[in-house]
Amino acid sequence: MGAKLYYFEGRRGDAEAIRMMFKEGGIDFDDVGVSEDQFQEMDAAGDLLFGQLPMVDFDGFKIVEQPAILEHIAQLTDEKGGKNKYLGENENERSTARSLCSAARQIRRELLHMLQVGSVEAKKDFKDRVIPFWFTSIDALAVSSGDEDQGLGDGVHFTFGDLAIFEVLNAISYALNVGVLRKYPNLKEWHDKAMRRSALEKHIASRADAEW
């Protein structure tokens, strides 16, 4: 028995940060690809919560919504012990992580809209409106992220919120180009430092090509 991650087959989407969190935490899981027909069957059988994916089944405990799943995996990881605290050192840092998850989710919605529309105009709007609005704020949080500081904002730990932000930045860089971070030097430095985390680096290097 163990954790099972259910998401649409051949897609990274909202499940990719969850995969990364499992890898970061050193927690084994089954990555179960779900076809559209299987999704409809699962929904009709009442196997889904709120009729949506991603969903993770932790030995019978089912949970949906990416932020909640990330926080739960962070809890399980911290219970194992270790220097890094994925929930943060205290409630203030945990609340910051939740805020970062919310920001990452909003950015991802904008990114998916751009990819779905697929027009030159949509890409231009994303670059001219979405990136400056969000990246400027996140760059400010990254200012204090020194060599020993792995997180954004208060605290030195790499939290589940930091991971959510990293994943969406990685997705944007992949969809557009790495150069989108160059105008935000603090953010780029933080992103590059997170990219060198062993588990994330191995996951990104070995993952199969897939749609976002």
What does this structure look like?
Helix 1 packs parallel to helix 3, helix 1 (16-25) packs across helix 6 (160-175) and helix 5 crosses helix 7 (185-195). With 212 residues, this protein is of the alpha+beta class. Helices cover 56% and strands 9% of the residues. The longest helix is centred in the middle third of the chain and has 27 residues, at 91-117. A 4-stranded mixed sheet has the order 2-1-3-4.
Write the layout of secondary structure elements.
Layout: E1 3-8, H1 16-25, E2 29-34, H2 36-44, E3 55-58, E4 61-64, H3 66-79, H4 91-117, H5 120-142, H6 160-175, H7 185-195, H8 198-206
Parallel strand pairs: 1-2
Antiparallel strand pairs: 1-3, 3-4
Could you provide a short overview of the structure?
The protein is an alpha+beta fold and 212 residues long.
Structure classification:
alpha+beta
SS elements, strand count: 4
- Side-by-side strand order of the widest sheet: 2-1-3-4
Spans where pLDDT lies below 50 across 5 or more residues: none
Largest sheet at a glance? 4 strands, mixed
CA-to-CA gap between the ends?
Answer: 29 Å
Number of helical elements:
8
Rg estimate, integer Å: 17 Å
What's the SSE pattern? Answer: EHEHEEHHHHHH
Q: What percentage of residues falls in helices of 4 or more residues?
A: 55-70%
Mean pLDDT: 92
Q: Strand-residue fraction?
A: 5-15%
- Shape verdict: globular
